[in-house]
Amino acid sequence: MNCTDRRDLGLLLLRLGTGGVLAAHGAQKLLGWFDGGGIEGTGQAMEAMGYTPGRASATAAGLAEAGGGTLLALGLATPAAGAAAAGAMVGAAAVHAPNGFFAQAGGYEYAVSLGLTAAGLAVTGPGHLSLDHALGHAVNRNWMVPAALAATAAATAVVVGARNKRVRKAAEGEQEPLFD
Fold first, then answer.
1. Cβ neighbours of 48 (radius 10 Å)
2. Where is 83: in which H helix or E strand?
3. Rounded CA separation 180/113 (Å)
4. pLDDT of 88-137, one tens digit each?
5. Are 107 and 101 a contacting pair, CB within 8 Å?
6. Is 143 left (phi over 0), alpha (psi -120 to 50) or beta?
7. Is residue 174's pLDDT more than 80?
């Protein structure tokens, strides 16, 4: 096995693992599979986290995770798939940020790991063991990488920024007791 074969096999493993985990997370949100809340339950949770409207937010997050994850696993439209999944994970990391970095304490470690892996795959490409390669990279052109990442970054900044503003505004009305 030469270095090229090893690289392609490594990319396949990264795509299958990361894509599979993301697709399962999205299926929880969209379909209620794997003890997920489905659109209704996830929508209510999204509202509570500051993402409004909740149902639309749940649908967008679920599609980015399930769709992006499935496409990453297949190695199809890799720039868009990786960017969409990374954007969804930025939204998840924003929710977990107040808990610090480590997932053990409810932090953003896991979301960042998935997001960075998805973004890395968007930049690196799927390798030869992929549908993109089999289709002549018709939906994996070099210009698509910066375009997908830039569009996702802009949309994510707007969504997460609006969410953070809502969370700050809601917290302004709450005051800690002055004396115990």
1. 10
2. helix 78-96
3. 40
4. 999 999 999 999 999 999 999 999 999 999 999 999 999 999 999 999 99
5. yes
6. alpha
7. no
Helix (H, G, I), strand (E, B) or coil at 101: coil
Name the residue with tokens 């830039």. Answer: 150
Q: Are 165 and 110 in contact (CB under 8 A)?
A: no
d(CA 89, CA 111): 5
Only one residue has tokens 């090229």, namely 4
d(CA 118, CA 172) in angstroms, rounded, equals 35
**Secondary structure letter of residue 135 according to DSSP:** T
- What DSSP line would sit under 8-70, residue for residue? HHHHHHHHHHHHHHHHHHHHHHHH--TT--HHHHHHHHHHHHT-SSHHHHHHHHHHHHHHHHH
Give one word for 73, left, alpha or beta, with left for phi > 0 and alpha for psi -120 to 50: alpha
**Tens of pLDDT, residues 44-94:** 999 999 999 999 999 999 999 999 999 999 999 999 999 999 999 999 999
Contacts 24+ apart (CB under 8 A), 171-180: none
